[in-house]
Amino acid sequence: MQENKTPAKVQAEPAKKKRWWTKDDTELTILALPTTVWYILFCYLPMFGIILAFKDYTITPGANFLTSLLNSKWVAFDNFKYFFGLRDFPQILRNTLLYNLVFIILDIVLPVTLAILISNIYSKRKSKTYQTLMFMPHFMSWVVVSYFVYAFLVTDKGLLNSVIQFFGGDKVNWYSTPGAWPVILIIMHVWKTIGYKMVVYLASITGIDSSLYEAAVLDGATKFQQAKYITIPSLRPIIIMMFILAIGGIFSSDFGLFYQVSRGANQPLTPMVATLDVKVYQMLTSGTVSLGKTAAASLFQAVVGCITILSANAIVRKFDRSSALI
Question: What does the alpha-carbon distance between residue 313 and residue 326 come to, in Å, rounded to a whole number?
Answer without folding.
Answer: 7
